[in-house]
Amino acid sequence: MRPSGRKPDELRPVRLTRHYTCHAEGSVLVEFGNTKVLCTASVEERVPPWLRNKGRGWVTAEYGMLPRATGSRNDREAARGKQQGRTIEIQRLIGRALRAAVDLEALGERRVVLDCDVLQADGGTRTAAITGSYVALVDACRLLVKQGQIRRSPLMGQIAAISVGIYNGTPVLDLDYAEDSEAETDMNVVMNEARGFIEVQGTAEGHAFRRDEMNAMMELAEHGVAQLIEIQQAALAD
Amino acid sequence: MRPSGRKPDELRPVRLTRHYTCHAEGSVLVEFGNTKVLCTASVEERVPPWLRNKGRGWVTAEYGMLPRATGSRNDREAARGKQQGRTIEIQRLIGRALRAAVDLEALGERRVVLDCDVLQADGGTRTAAITGSYVALVDACRLLVKQGQIRRSPLMGQIAAISVGIYNGTPVLDLDYAEDSEAETDMNVVMNEARGFIEVQGTAEGHAFRRDEMNAMMELAEHGVAQLIEIQQAALAD
Amino acid sequence: MRPSGRKPDELRPVRLTRHYTCHAEGSVLVEFGNTKVLCTASVEERVPPWLRNKGRGWVTAEYGMLPRATGSRNDREAARGKQQGRTIEIQRLIGRALRAAVDLEALGERRVVLDCDVLQADGGTRTAAITGSYVALVDACRLLVKQGQIRRSPLMGQIAAISVGIYNGTPVLDLDYAEDSEAETDMNVVMNEARGFIEVQGTAEGHAFRRDEMNAMMELAEHGVAQLIEIQQAALAD
Amino acid sequence: MRPSGRKPDELRPVRLTRHYTCHAEGSVLVEFGNTKVLCTASVEERVPPWLRNKGRGWVTAEYGMLPRATGSRNDREAARGKQQGRTIEIQRLIGRALRAAVDLEALGERRVVLDCDVLQADGGTRTAAITGSYVALVDACRLLVKQGQIRRSPLMGQIAAISVGIYNGTPVLDLDYAEDSEAETDMNVVMNEARGFIEVQGTAEGHAFRRDEMNAMMELAEHGVAQLIEIQQAALAD
Amino acid sequence: MRPSGRKPDELRPVRLTRHYTCHAEGSVLVEFGNTKVLCTASVEERVPPWLRNKGRGWVTAEYGMLPRATGSRNDREAARGKQQGRTIEIQRLIGRALRAAVDLEALGERRVVLDCDVLQADGGTRTAAITGSYVALVDACRLLVKQGQIRRSPLMGQIAAISVGIYNGTPVLDLDYAEDSEAETDMNVVMNEARGFIEVQGTAEGHAFRRDEMNAMMELAEHGVAQLIEIQQAALAD
Amino acid sequence: MRPSGRKPDELRPVRLTRHYTCHAEGSVLVEFGNTKVLCTASVEERVPPWLRNKGRGWVTAEYGMLPRATGSRNDREAARGKQQGRTIEIQRLIGRALRAAVDLEALGERRVVLDCDVLQADGGTRTAAITGSYVALVDACRLLVKQGQIRRSPLMGQIAAISVGIYNGTPVLDLDYAEDSEAETDMNVVMNEARGFIEVQGTAEGHAFRRDEMNAMMELAEHGVAQLIEIQQAALAD
Known about the structure:
Order of helices and strands of chain A: EEEEHHHEHEEHEEH
Number of strands of chain A: 9
Strand order of the largest sheet of chain A: 1-2-3-5-4
Oligomer: homohexamer
Number of helices of chain A: 6
Structural class of chain A: alpha+beta
Low-confidence stretches of chain A: none
Distance between the termini of chain A: 36 Å
CATH topology of chain A: Ribosomal Protein S5, domain 2
Radius of gyration of chain A: 18 Å
């Protein structure tokens, strides 16, 4: 039995609110139950130094958590003068995941920064961030096309992500904090709309996991991402 | 004529949403028109080293802006490894302002941190942060009383803040970004419910301002803060 | 009764020593009683990146305190790797104050840095720094004119600053450390030679201050700055 | 055809040299072909603050690359004052992997630090580091038992790691730099001696990978780790 | 011929002004010609963590240059967030030199910090700093004895320092900036009152120096330090 | 009697292994007994900003110690975000020493970085680093000549370094850690093949040293460096 009463293969209610803030080229509030992440896509007409004059653009991500997004307050990283290892690991994952969906040559010599800021955390913030950032990125690309800055969208695929894990011996989909902090295994899976894998990161928290457990988690992930892909499409159709 | 069509002494619509996030002891979204700041109050059962065993508590504030809260993206301070001078100046102001309302001995040996994070900026973020933080602080103190950790609220007064300035030669109340960026003088005023001044910070941006202009701005500020005090009370009465 | 025996509207002895060190374009030791600040103006033939090729110059300030300028030793900021919030707040104030006196286009594409280093502190270091920096800035501008680098001085006004406050219930001028550490209200006022206000920063340390108290402090400040303006002129006439 | 002429399921020559340096409790040079990593295990009789007086120990890892371990020189992280995101990601992986093999209560209130310094890089440094660190950790634990500081080894399993990937459309084992920089998919797999998975991290570099490709890579990884487990045992039997 | 017209073995005018600032336990302005360094000795009733409860004290030094102590402005180290290599090298030298004169057990569990801040630089700042710091340290120790905190002075010897070098092929004493920037060899020598060497640091700037040149420089240094020892004694006798 | 049983003027066994790693233009493992330092020379086709377009090159050094190169583990400087004072002092010494052997104009507009990383420490790491770096630098210069990038080697002399000191009242050559930690005086001497001095750094650890002791140490240093010069030549002749 899951703490939330959900079935093992049941997602939390997922909500994508586009145009959540007014300045960014793409701005999406993504909610997976009580997890709330604001994802903005900012377009800048310049690329990092090592990409200059190569005819290609860049997509990168930054991740942050408001100090009181969690049950007890975390130090503000800006005040400590340093991002935590966990933060760096997560933002690198988000960046890699989204770049997998973009034709960087078609983007042209510009940079898109995806800022993922967790307003409220209840497990699964990194996969929510990837799922929401994709929608923000679509909005930003549509704007570039609309403004005539690029002829066609540089997006080559659709990206969503979900966490799966083994909780109390049972493979479950979309772990909330109560599950995540007790899970024996925790796995984050990033996929595209064609059921292709972009990134798989699984960690045994308690004991090592077996091939069959891994297969069961992959099944759940495919099932969950398929739903997220539809939720993204519905949001983008509005 | 103001860009927004407001009268010189007219506030933007102000909204205070309590319990905006679920983990903090106090959590308030404050909106002054398009300016949106999330203010959380976190209670910690410890004080800074220089206050240990003195029977007194501490109230402090931290301020941040999401990278794309503004028209063009600002570097993330956590990634740059350093808070900007402007950030430090603002969070010191917020902390001083709120401490003016608190009996630190009545608070006991605990620390309250007010985190003010700007989700969307359109001028006046620091005064909005003070106004919203006060409400978050009340909620946190009420909880401490309710939990029996302190016998009575350590709050000794009510605090609100507003910006005033001289725009196109006319003293105006509550400047938005369009006005702020063009204003000849910009002044932030923190007051209590008894019309006492907690902090006054006025800066000539263009030419020096005269005593009579200063007096006119002070009048506007008193007028504006009086309304904010009522709006806070209404929000806290819910 | 003031600890120093001064009358409420009495300045400490103020001394401005020009050419205090030999390398800087302007170098002034400013003394307000026991407060001693070395202010140097350095001219650099380049502007910050965001001002390049705009035909305008820049004036900025940096503030520091020698570790043992005060009663007990403070950590050296260079060794800690970080400027304190107080330092940043002060140097931003000094920079804004002095820029208010300069026609940045007439200055041309160059930068003037005002370094204000406190050799000995006894209250009022920031207002002393502004008052002394103005004289150093005049010397630097005169040199630029003399060397033929600019045709006329870019200075558009004269700037001086003083602290006022409420000590033991009485408004007083030019607080020393003994008063400052006990004051109920502390206000720093920057003005020009035409009695215009450049910056006003007042903080209630104990209880909130009233409009009439504020007016009394403003009177004192006008009275004090008028004297400082004359002292600066006398120093510059030598 | 692989650049090195190896078969798809063929490891590079792997060498483990124990007691490579003289001061550390465990010190192992691990070589996978031209990749050379020095892994030391240092035992400290103290734990991080958050673990004090809990009767448990801690195992952590730090990773570094000598500036010229690679084809072109990288900035020294100590001189830049910051570890790269890649470094942080890798050392977190190594730490998690090794902790999975340790009964932290049996270790007692002490900390083991695994320092993995790459002397020469040719792909697969993180999996080599895990494989070598395990041997260094065994040596350190044996010493603790021998010195009578703990009664039995806190090691609960054997850990090794290998990279797999898809190169030119073919799943291959143990990628060297020439392959890694061209691979379509790159996956690092950490396993124990019982074929249990500790960590799986797979990233699509070019196009998304399919379930069947993932399965093929997992097979190769199992095959490779099984050999590494034997090589570790042989080294430890000396 | 030296730029200053001095003879090869001639010191610049040396001046030691005690009680230059009012807060420090020792405060000395040392001048070697145009080189002016403010040396303060601060006594703190605590020792660094690694010395706690060992019955011994510590003496350390910090060095800084005001940004415009030199011909062109140097970045403020506090603003850059980092001390330069040169600064660190110098302050380590000063600390070692002064510790050589102190019986750390007789000092008791307290720390003396010698802050050496260059107000104006014209070569030889580090040796001036050592020579002036010694006098500040004597004043601080005398105060400790006078206050009854220690029974006898912990000073075991007298320390002074001078630079020597080879300029235009001739060994010279006490190089000023004009000489220093052109010198073929530059050597800093720290000695005690018994002609014993505390530290010798010689660097060939142009070509390597010979044993006989080294001997000639050592002679000059002995000659110069002997005079400085007398100047210190005269200053301390006032 | 020395702890190692060596005679006062006896070097430890010295070994220079060229081509120790495969990527660098020069790569030498230098061993002085148990002290092992990896010295790599990296050629970069660019110079620091302040040298651009001046027709000259640059040679610089960086020094590091693996965390467990010593008896107890030192914090990793990259993780602490700061190089220690000792590290900075040493790498500045190495850089100055090697630059003394190079005609920077003949090197052309390129930079050689000498990375000296201590794998195992037993005293004398800085002098070993200088001695080994010279050989790595020769290899890098030979490669530049061979590749036709410069016509002749920019090396103008041969550089080696050794430590000398006073141990138990006796001047000794090449101190190991057991001696170094007990020595009364410690001196590092850098010389060239013509017995010229490049750098001399002597520090009294216990009592001040006399002229005759200094002379005795210089004799030992000359004796030691003469042998190192031959060992370098033999290594380079292979």
